[in-house]
Design goal:
Keywords: ATP-binding, Nucleotide-binding. This is ATP-binding protein. It holds the Pfam family WHD. It is a single chain. This protein is of the alpha/beta class. The protein folds into three domains: 154 residues, no CATH class; 173 residues, 3-Layer(aba) Sandwich (Rossmann fold); 93 residues, Helicase, Ruva Protein, domain 3 (Orthogonal Bundle). It contains 22 helices and eight strands. Strand 5, helix 14 and strand 6 form a beta-alpha-beta unit. The termini are far apart.
Length: 448
């Protein structure tokens, strides 16, 4: 028998898999019609099986594609899950073999019948489809429940890999992508906080070693809580985590998930996590204090349902096989019973003067002309702004300078910082600018 040609496109190399499935479908149809299978049907199947065995050898195309060796029955299930997407004729055939089915994907029961598995062999198939088995643990297969009649679907990332195209995950319901790419050098945080973020990353990157090889107890997540005032870098840190993994960051909009109708919130959450299962993505939940606040007395039925919704969300977050990051500005309002269940809690402090100076240095446009007296150290000492406020003020000063046709100077920075402080809604005095006060334009002084 000829070995698979390595110079062919992967889809062409895998043709024997679909041909074998075609023959298995034809054989099952004959058997259901009461016909006996003879040598004319079985001889082609044996030849196709030999070709498939070559594809599945330890040094074959499947091993190169997956980077993992699977049991034969697990690969059979994976091929059946891929088939309707790659060979539509097989999807229609699967649907025809499952009376009442409204979709083209094979169920575990159909795979068992196609492969003519007896009761003990069927148990091997069930184990290959378990949540802790490689097919689902590595995110290659999507299966909603341990039910023999649930459809087996290949994950979009695996389909993209088989087709040789970049994987682009679809945003799960209720979430939207956070644009941008961030690296560790973009974070201005104390060394201890950077170390905690890197330790959180280990829960993801070292999972195969700890759980797969060392027998550590499998669990979902990991889940982290990022706590601190607004503008201290929580979302940026989540972006760094996602970028370090080569994944996308998605912000979950709980306003689109929480419903006033009993039971609908849980359904929305289930759709979110089911769609995110096995995907290369990090989920970020903002305003965790609104979700996991200290629980009060149950005074009416709605209070009881609200507690059930929070419990359901926490259960799904903990069971989700992927990183979840919760952020809050008000950690003291969180129930300690919830925070103990997170793998990591990272406090994001307001930047001190040296950190603010470094933020000014980084956030002022690097190619912009600057006046000689524009010293980041002076700016860091002048006003205790958060990182987010410094980012806004740095850009505001740059736009002012560009409009005036001048280098960025202390006058534009004082103007921009004044506008940033005004957002707080309090009464301002030029003295709030510290040493920048004497550079504040006269027309702004009149506003005080």
């Amino acid at each position: 028998m000829n070995a698979p040609r390595p110079d062919l496109p992967l889809l062409a190399v895998l043709d024997p898999e679909w041909q074998r499935l075609d023959t298995l479908v034809a054989c099952l149809s004959r058997q259901r019609a009461g016909q006996t299978l003879g040598e004319a049907e079985l001889a082609p199947l044996r030849a196709q099986q030999a070709q498939v065995d070559a594809l599945r050898a330890p040094d074959g195309p499947w091993a190169a594609l997956l980077g993992h060796t699977l049991e034969p029955v697990a690969l059979d299930a994976l091929v059946c899950a891929l088939a309707p997407e790659l060979e539509p004729r097989l999807g229609w055939a699967f649907q025809g073999l499952q009376p009442g089915a409204t979709q083209p994907w094979a169920s575990r029961a159909l795979v068992q019948e196609l492969l003519a598995l007896d009761a003990s062999q069927a148990e091997w198939l069930r184990r290959a489809l378990a949540p802790e088995a490689p097919l689902r643990r590595l995110g290659w297969l999507r299966l909603e429940a341990d039910d023999p009649y649930q459809p087996l679907r290949a994950a979009p990332a695996l389909l993209a890999r088989v087709c040789g195209r970049p994987a682009e995950p679809t945003p799960p319901p209720g979430a939207s992508p956070v644009p941008g790419h961030a690296g560790w050098d973009d974070l201005v945080l104390p060394a201890s906080r950077l170390a905690m973020l890197q330790e959180f990353l280990l829960w993801i990157t070292q999972r195969d070693t700890v759980v797969g090889r060392w027998g550590g107890r499998a669990r979902g997540g990991p889940v982290a809580l990022f706590a601190g005032p607004s503008g201290t870098g929580k979302t940026l840190a989540a972006s760094v985590i996602a970028s370090a993994l080569g994944w996308r960051l998605y912000r979950v909009d709980l306003g689109r998930l929480v419903s006033k109708y009993v039971g609908e919130t849980e359904q929305n959450l289930n759709r979110l996590f089911d769609a995110a299962e096995g995907q290369a993505m990090v989920l970020q939940f903002d305003e965790a204090d609104a979700l996991f606040a200290k629980r009060g007395e149950v005074k009416e039925a709605r209070d009881r349902y609200a507690n059930l919704e929070v419990s359901h969300l926490l259960t799904r977050i903990e069971a989700h096989d992927g990183p979840c990051i919760l952020t809050t500005n008000l950690r003291k309002q969180l129930d300690p019973a919830f925070t103990r269940r997170f793998q990591m809690v990272v406090e994001f402090p307001r930047p001190d003067a040296p950190a603010r100076a470094e933020l000014w240095r980084r956030l002022l446009p690097p190619q912009a002309p600057r006046s000689a007296d524009l010293d980041p150290a002076l700016l860091g000492e002048a006003v205790a702004l958060s990182g987010g406020s410094i980012r806004n003020a740095a850009l505001h000063a740059a736009f002012l300078a560009a409009a005036q046709g001048q280098p960025i100077g202390l006058g534009q920075v004082a103007h921009a910082v004044w506008r940033e402080l005004a957002k707080e809604g309090r009464e301002l005095s030029p003295q709030d600018l510290g040493p920048l006060a004497r550079h504040l334009p006269p027309e702004l002084r009149d506003e005080a």
